[in-house]
Structures are given as C-alpha cells and as structure tokens.
Amino acid sequence: MKKYKLNDIVSLKKGHPCGENKWKIERMGADMKLRCLGCDKIVWMKRIDFDKRIRKIKDKNDKFVSIVNYNPEED
User: How far is residue 33's CA from residue 42's CA, in Å, rounded to a whole number?
Assistant: First the structure.
C-alpha cells in the first residue's frame, strides 16, 4: 500500500551526486518521476526500485519522518 502522493518531498537511501537528498515526486505509475531539489535534475525509476529506496518523507509539519511512521490520512 502506497503512503505517498504527488508533490511529496522524499529522501532516498542514497543521495544525488550534486549533494542533495531531497526529491519531489512529479509522476506516479509503473515508473516514478522524481526531481532533485538541489539541481532540478529529473530521474525516472521503476516503482519497485523506488519502494526499496525510499527512507523518509516530509510530513505536514515540514519534518522528515520515517516512511513506516508516516500516515497520509492525517494530512
């Protein structure tokens, strides 16, 4: 069950080579389209790979919380 939606800011297991580790979800489907918030580079990855790599997500209080503890219904 997915716990994220469009325009969420997420943190992945490994950061981008530009030094930033914050990504904005721009498209969801079989593939995920992510935009690096450091350099605006767009990256496509398979949803299965994204689900394995996602670690934290920004909640309504602008804090990063673990994806396990995130409840989107509270937003």
Answer: 7
Instruction: Supply 22's token pair.
Output: 């914050």
Question: What does each C-alpha distance from 31 to 26, 28, 45, 51, 61 come to in angstroms?
Answer: 11, 6, 6, 11, 28
Q: How confident is the model at residue 74 (pLDDT cuts 50, 70, 90)?
A: low
């389209």: which residue's tokens?
33
Phi, psi (deg, nearest 5) at residue 15: -80, 170
3-state secondary structure of 64: strand
Q: pLDDT tens digit string along 16-53?
A: 899 899 999 999 999 999 999 999 999 999 999 998 99
Global pTM value:
0.83
Q: Which residue has the tokens 């690096």?
A: 36
The residues near 54 (Cβ < 8 Å, ≥ 6 apart) are: 4, 10, 11, 12, 13, 67
